[in-house]
Amino acid sequence: MKRVALIAIAAVAAWLLPYGLGGYAIHVADVAIIFAILAIGLGLTMGVAGQINLAQVAFFGVGAYTVAILTTEAGLGFWTASLLALATAVVFGVLVGIPALRMQSHYLGIVTLGLALAFTNWVTNAHIAGRAEGISDIPVPPMFGVDLSSGYLFYYVELIVFAIALAFALLVTRSPLGRRLRAMRDDDLAAGALGAEIPLLRMTAFVLSGLYGGLAGILYAGLIRFVAPESFNIANMFLLLAMVIIGGRASILGCVVGAVALSLVREALLDASGYAQLGYGLVVVLVVVFAPKGLAGLPGQIRSLLRRRTGGSRAQLGPFLPYDAVPPAGEEDVLEIRGVTMRFKGLVALDEVSLTVPAGQIRGIVGPNGSGKTTLFNVISGFYTPGQGAVVLHGREVTGMAPYQLAQRGVARTFQNLRLFEDLSVRENLLLGLDRTRTWWIWRYPSLPWKVLGYERALRRRAGELIERFGLVEVADAEPRSLPYGIQRRIELARAMAMSPGLLLLDEPAAGLNGEEVRQLADIVRSIRDSGVTVIIIEHNMGLVMSLCDQVTVLSSGKVIADGPPAEVAVHPDVVAAYLGDSMAAPTEETAEAAVEEATR
Ligand SMILES: Nc1ncnc2c1ncn2[C@@H]1O[C@H](COP(=O)(O)OP(=O)(O)OP(=O)(O)O)[C@@H](O)[C@H]1O
């Protein structure tokens, strides 16, 4: 209710604004709105999706120049030209996005900057773009007899377009697509393991950037009715970057605030533009150092500072609510590894490894450090493609498939060094696991936005159930990094189970847990198995392996040296020999007997 009231007040204030402004001031407001739309586009690619994009000003130019060329040279109407301009900017977005499929971070920055420079170069030299003089005489956009040559009336067109653009950006960021984009930004490997199609997501980010850049360019062409290369140069790109960084790149509202604030500052400092550039640079450096999340992140920063002062969170895990047990389905092998060999340059990490995991089993994978256990998981979950051999899942060969394809086929995993998305809340981490849609589903965002909202509500309901089942109610809205290690491990397990997997891979889930937490972990894994999920677990805690696993496979130097029931494997001479000299506790006859006794009690 409070939010609706705030939106209503902002809308009324924006609507009434021109009544209090003079002719020049309304022009400044018109330009500020255009920068705000541009900043939203840049915020979506750089802040939300983490794709360095220094070509946003070129998307802006593509939109403006396409309208200018099509209206003055080809004689098209303003709005027809605008539709084509939007399409051209999106195509340009796809082209700029292609390098992002192969490179990231500063390399991507250099490439996008190069493309932006190439654009300004082209418009400065091309006859059709009016060379350095630009193109004037762009027609006034017709609007049912309303004279849009007036800056006052044009303001209202801009305001409506801005409101729609802002609402769409908020819909994107606060729903499954935005969450996946943020997850990709934080850790693309973990996002891929949860089913996010990384290449398509990167493309989507650049398409959104092109869309917003093109939209801003069209409005610019309609407002100024003149385009020239200097409006789309690197100095303006830098100003745009400053707007987004100062406002808070990951927050759409922050980007808008940054854009409006710096547009006003720019006007105030028009006579000292050289010093102004220096000033923006200084402020950007200060913001990056002291408030990395910009103005929008300040309230959160202050809150977490206060929390630290008052002793931090003493969050507690609640009890785990077991899954309903289901009777085992007909015997079927869930996973078959056939003669898999994985080499890293000269090192053979896996050497003709073969094993079969039947449905409903808890399989332990043990072995000394460096014996190839995690490499095996990386092969099963698609992170590595083996040089030789095959991975067969539910009877179908899946060798070489990408992590997201395997995630969609029901393979979920946890990581040895926890890979939670630190900037997302616990609830959002689980929502990512629950969302099983493919990226192409995003066509619904523009066409059926209410279905997106309905889907999000359903996901949140299911996340609520999962949070209760895993005893995470107290920490649901915290950021994982603020929580004790044991709770983080529980969250990662819950996130993997959110994917409703058929095969769950747990990589050292007991590492760093205390005795009581290990006992709880064993109960949880048994309940997961009883609910019909096949589990493979890599563990150094031999007590846990012996009591929990139905069958254990032992790796040593990339080879399977033993495979069988825990009690048999523990006393196998090759296993005892492999563990000699290893710092981890080797299985012994006593630990095996004690564990088996406990398990059968
Ligand atoms: N990406 C990689 N590049 C090069 N070598 C690698 C890579 N991944 C693993 N290795 C090497 O392969 C071997 C097996 O590593 P792996 O991580 O699978 O062992 P592990 O049994 O899981 O060990 P630990 O118990 O310590 O986790 C090691 O010698 C490791 O250094």
UniProtKB/TrEMBL annotation:
InterPro entries the record matches: AAA+_ATPase, ABC_AA/LPS_Transport, ABC_transp_permease, ABC_transporter-like_ATP-bd, BCA_ABC_TP_C, LivM-like, P-loop_NTPase
SUPFAM superfamilies attached to this UniProt entry: P-loop containing nucleoside triphosphate hydrolases (SSF52540)
GO molecular function, one term: ATP binding
Signal peptide feature range: none
Subcellular location(s) per record: Cell membrane
CDD domains, A to Z: ABC_Mj1267_LivG_branched (cd03219), TM_PBP1_LivM_like (cd06581)
Domain ABC transporter: 335-582
Membrane-topology annotation of the record: Multi-pass membrane protein
Alphabetical UniProt keywords: ATP-binding, Cell membrane, Membrane, Nucleotide-binding, Transmembrane, Transmembrane helix, Transport
Organism in which the protein naturally occurs: Nonomuraea rubra
Keyword Nucleus appears in the UniProt entry: no
PANTHER family xrefs: CONSERVED COMPONENT OF ABC TRANSPORTER FOR NATURAL AMINO ACIDS (PTHR45772:SF9), CONSERVED COMPONENT OF ABC TRANSPORTER FOR NATURAL AMINO ACIDS-RELATED (PTHR45772)
Protein name per its UniProtKB record: Branched-chain amino acid transport system permease protein
GO CC annotations on file: plasma membrane
Pfam families: ABC_tran (PF00005), BCA_ABC_TP_C (PF12399), BPD_transp_2 (PF02653)
Spans traversing the lipid bilayer: 32-49, 54-72, 78-98, 105-123, 153-172, 205-228, 234-265, 277-298
Keyword Transmembrane attached: yes
